[in-house]
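Researcher: Please translate sequence to structure tokens.
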Amino acid sequence: MIYYNKAPDPTVGYDLVVRLDRIVERDEDLFQMFWDQGVLPDYFGWNVDALLDSIFLWKTKLNRKNILVDFVVNIATPSRTNKALYQCLRRQIEIWRNEDGVFDVYFRSDPDGDVRKKVENSGRVATQAEWGDRMSGRSKKA
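Model: Translation complete:
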């Protein structure tokens, strides 16, 4: 399900929330934001096709079934990178329809929107400290 500036379903207990908390204009910045959250494999190819493949691995490799991608975008004039990510996430929603689990995407125009705070305070998602523990020792591949 895609949510535009409205709260995702509060009854879903997301066990993975991936946040892109600022508008990105370049593919490299987008990939780095995913990388920094520890949701890309070490062999990630740093392109949109590799991102599409990697997102599906969240279920099989990370054993996550209920996923929310919380994404800040200038909805009125999205960049080429934002459009590519949107298409990638729409494809994932289609793929996950036949899977056991939930793949939701929340597009919002306000980086500090209150829905983000609701999700963070729900107690059902990984904390920043947990991400930090996971990320220790990881750096962008050259």
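Researcher: Any highlights?
Model: The first strand starts at residue 2 and ends at 4.
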